[in-house]
Please model this.
Amino acid sequence: MKVNLGIWDKLTRLIVLLLVLAALLGIALWYLPLIQRNERMRKDIITLETEVRKEEENQKRLKASIEAMRDPRTVERLVREKLSYAKTGETIIRFEAPASNSVPALPR
Model:
């Protein structure tokens, strides 16, 4: 048996719907700062992972340099190039970069 309550039945359904929507909106507003914080943290993680990769590459490069310095021939070559050292009886000849051939502009 169904009883027709008229407008009151429709208003009750509308109020229930509005209460459900208000509850959902309240939950969304409650968690919005948490969602924004989560997004910021994800961006920070991506940035930090990029920095970690760069530092790992730098570490590999530095380890290779250290390993190369364990070879006496490499050390000798670097000392000769950077510090201009020579063995007894050797002569050091330094070459300078050529001067540019640019002609200065004439005043008008």
